[in-house]
Specification:
2 copies of one chain form a homodimer. With 401 residues, chain A is an alpha/beta fold. Chain A is built from 12 helices and 14 strands. Helices cover 40% and strands 15% of the residues of chain A.
Chain lengths: 401, 401
């Protein structure tokens, strides 16, 4: 055999400088080929008609004669702030001015900026447990200590939170009251009243993450805490990632003007400002009603997917799982029956080409519990049927005898 | 007079929660109407042909069949990472793989993520003084203590930095070697060698911000430190804000793969990921040579503007200012002559409809010095002539007798 004459690529040298310790990120299954991903709360971007969006980009670029390409206001494109304020008023009973809307890169940036704007190092933030770890990390990175508060069938245990608040100062509480992440339950009306009253009395900021407000299938959507309690108490965080597309990275905060000034100050040193081309294009799609039509259309589709997934799971895996159809959202919360190890099942499912998240991804200390979040947002009806078949095969593989 | 019957808008309540102290942001003159802004380093977005961009948006949306709208890789769109790597190799002598490119929201996010990825609380970061305050804040917000190091006609005083490095551990040094911000000077070759040698010996990360590499008018551009020293020592930060448009918010880091993993981890909790629609569209404009043609065209234009501004300033204000034509960039660094108070002049200029920044915006402790940065990037030739006339009128207004 001839010796290789081409020089090998030079070995890359390790950095001469030190790296800081990095926060832990859960690996994402989203990009594996051939795997059907039961995404935690992701929507199906195949349902989007891209042509109106392409037209909106073109119109914004031409009509503004390039002014959208300049440096602009850190709080976002004025048209999008107005469009979001109008949407909140008409669909969520939340009456705020456009000057109380701050556009961010998805809700993650909203949480990150809010955290820095209201927290001092060592401040306590109460969080739902089980809950959304990406939000927790945003608070931790702003210096917060987290206080896990139990979630049950009525949502966050507000009485338990009130007892904690007697013992120590709590700066903020982070909640997902509409379809709790990950358990999908809705915070009860009593608890909403009690939570608002507690927050006012103790000076606790309520950070309300209403990430999939539109996807409610049983009766009208529940109005957000912010519409009941006002922006003096509630910092409302929303996103277009579910109702439009995650890739556009449009989130927003509706809050007191005082807070918005802080958000702008922190944003100046985080990413300076948003992208007014996409913000202007999305504003146009909201103004023309395109976004609202899209939501009505996909809500019906997601409802069909929810029903199909729940039915198929019961029919094929009723011996292994118990579940209730969620009133909204893009995922089913299921519990494994005795004799089924949910985490072993999840590992086997990946070998069979299905990815889903079990409870330990959502518990405060990573402890294992017999539950899983089974997302149906990204799967069409054929894929849902196939997914359940693969889950069943994987279940056989991990079940003795 | 009839009493007003319409109810007044309810007074907004102040938040029940506390706000953290916010970092100070310099007010921007960019948005005042009727004011000619000598932007510190902003380009003229009126020179952009928006049609190719609109077409690129459309093509990316259609060709990807919406897959650009999904969640994706925090490091950026693969096509853009490849296009940036190819550009760095062909124009800057910087040979890195696409896997060493991390796309960010402008260079500000690049600096913010780099700061978090390499700094522990209390670490020392050496910075140019005079220098770029937005970068300093990114380091401070990551917990750094800043060490100002003098800049002279040869750029950063590397010998002074070396002396400091004997006394204390320095984690990183932030430099703008090509056209130093704000003084426009170029770091000499000797100092480049010494800086790289010092960094290797002491384990100091060099953060090189090459924000306007393409706009060099006298001879070839100076190759970046990163091309000389490699990514084991230099963390290279670039942006398309100047060569394309600030509003698109495309920045990037070229660095060791180990660092890129950290950037991704911190980004997960800052804004999750970028916008693959704009990233894909810009990649297309780079692949087709559109960006490169735009750069060649505007470089000639900016050179004309530089020459015109320097000539007009000398002709009309030679008694008040001394200056040298910069070899590159989008601004002139000028010094006021004795008898002219530059800060009073700047205040008067604003009354006459011209905004420019004086040295105190760039000094480490805000001290006043008799210099100013006069940007010509955003002003066409007619506007430059008018700007200098207004500056002259303002100068008369603040000059006794």
């Amino acid at each position: 055999m001839q010796p290789r004459l081409r020089p090998r690529r030079a070995e890359r040298e390790a950095p001469v400088y030190r790296l800081s310790s990095a926060p832990r990120v859960e690996p994402a299954a989203e990009h594996m080929t051939g795997v059907l991903v039961m995404g935690g709360s992701a929507p199906d971007t195949r349902l989007i008609d891209v042509e109106p969006l392409a037209r909106a980009y073109r119109r914004v670029l031409h009509d503004s004669r390039g002014s959208v390409l300049r440096y602009g206001d850190a709080a976002g494109h004025p048209r999008l702030r107005s469009a979001l304020a109008a949407m909140l008023a008409s669909t969520r009973g939340l009456t705020v001015g456009a000057d109380q809307i701050f556009v961010t890169r998805g809700s993650q940036m909203a949480l990150s900026l809010v955290a820095r704007s209201i927290l001092r190092r060592g401040d306590v933030v109460a969080v739902e447990a089980l809950g959304y770890r990406h939000a927790w990390q945003a608070f931790r990175l702003a210096g917060a200590r987290l206080l896990p508060v139990l979630v049950d069938a009525g949502g966050l245990d507000v009485a338990a939170l009130a007892r904690c608040a007697e013992q120590q100062r709590i700066a903020a509480v982070y909640v997902t009251p509409h379809h709790q992440f990950p358990t999908t339950v809705t915070l009860t009306q009593d608890r909403r009243q009690n939570l608002l009253e507690l927050a006012r009395r103790k000076g606790i900021a309520i950070i309300e993450d209403d990430y999939d407000h539109e996807f409610h299938y049983e009766g009208p959507s529940v109005m957000p805490l912010a519409s009941l309690g006002g922006t003096a108490t509630v910092i409302y965080v929303g996103t277009l990632s579910k109702i439009l597309a995650p890739g556009l990275r449009i989130g927003y905060v509706a809050a007191a003007a005082e807070l918005l000034e802080r958000l702008a100050a922190y944003r100046a040193f985080a990413d300076m400002q948003g992208d007014f081309v996409v913000e202007g294009a999305v504003a146009e799609l909201m103004e023309t009603g395109e976004v609202q039509r899209h939501v009505r259309r996909v809500r019906l589709e997601y409802r069909r997917r929810r029903d199909l997934l729940a039915d198929r799971l019961r029919a094929r895996l009723g011996h292994a799982l118990s579940l209730e159809r969620p009133s909204g959202g893009l995922a089913v919360w299921a519990s494994s029956r005795p004799g089924t190890d949910i985490d072993r099942w999840a590992a086997a499912a990946l070998d069979h080409g299905v990815a889903f998240q079990t409870a330990h991804t959502f518990t405060f200390s990573g402890e294992r519990l017999p539950h899983a979040r089974l997302g149906y947002g990204t799967l069409n009806e054929m894929e849902i049927v196939e997914t359940v078949e693969r889950l069943a095969a994987a279940h056989v593989a991990v079940t003795p005898g």
